[in-house]
């Protein structure tokens, strides 16, 4: 088990803009006019009892994961009543287990955990819950309902649905009809998240009598994206729509398009990187579907509420929900300015 020195205490002023698809708190106390004459006792954002929150995430070897980690730290800095303990990011489940054991031994007030492997971290997360420490599970689910007090997730199936619905709109708006050639560049096919994204895409396309004509898969890396896209372009001489699951992978995908001098198609991305949003602004990409990099930041807010025994001020229910699934909106030239502050660098 690593010593306490192996945990990094989040310090320093960090600025961040986070968007909660499910709002947890209000920034300003409501007025009597706002509430129809009733004044709440306090706002959830008002400083309360100090709480110690342990945060553990995977190694930031991918732009989205780096954004997840940095947004969590930045969000904690917004609250003077949060003492955030950050474990070193790792892709080793055994090391992450030891980090959680340290949090348990330190008797933190709450834990926010994006597990390297949900099944592998289930046992130690359950131990934390049994020790009376609420666990907020982020993005990759545990294999037991007893391992977390609250789970906050992106919507992988919803990403596919959003991409497919937008593709249907493009087919209609551009009179592509039944002859539209729609292609898909997936991530790692063995992962459930990839399967969910593909299922959602296919299901949405079926609503407008379309389907995926050609599909290739990468590995969520720049190199694999370039190779997969090159293979696709060689196999298909004319394409109408391309959906690429991941914007980090999309750096390589876009390079393949440029190298082949191919731009006859509408290019849709996934996740919401800064690169993708700049391409949208420059007219080199049609859209990207957001997979929110704010999930761990949202988890920090929820952990604070749980540790302080508060609920979510925008709900009538007095407790934090057990499960929250964030939206997967489509970012286009019409709304890119709104989402650009949330974008991550690849």
Automatic annotation (TrEMBL):
Belongs to the bacterial solute-binding protein 2 family. Residues 1-23 form the signal peptide. Residues 36-46 have a biased composition (Polar residues). This is Substrate-binding domain-containing protein. It comes from Salinactinospora qingdaonensis. SUPFAM superfamilies: Periplasmic binding protein-like I. Pfam families: Peripla_BP_4. Its main location: other. Keywords: Signal. It is found in: Cell envelope. Residues 27-49 are annotated as: Disordered. Residues 53-310 form the Periplasmic binding protein domain.
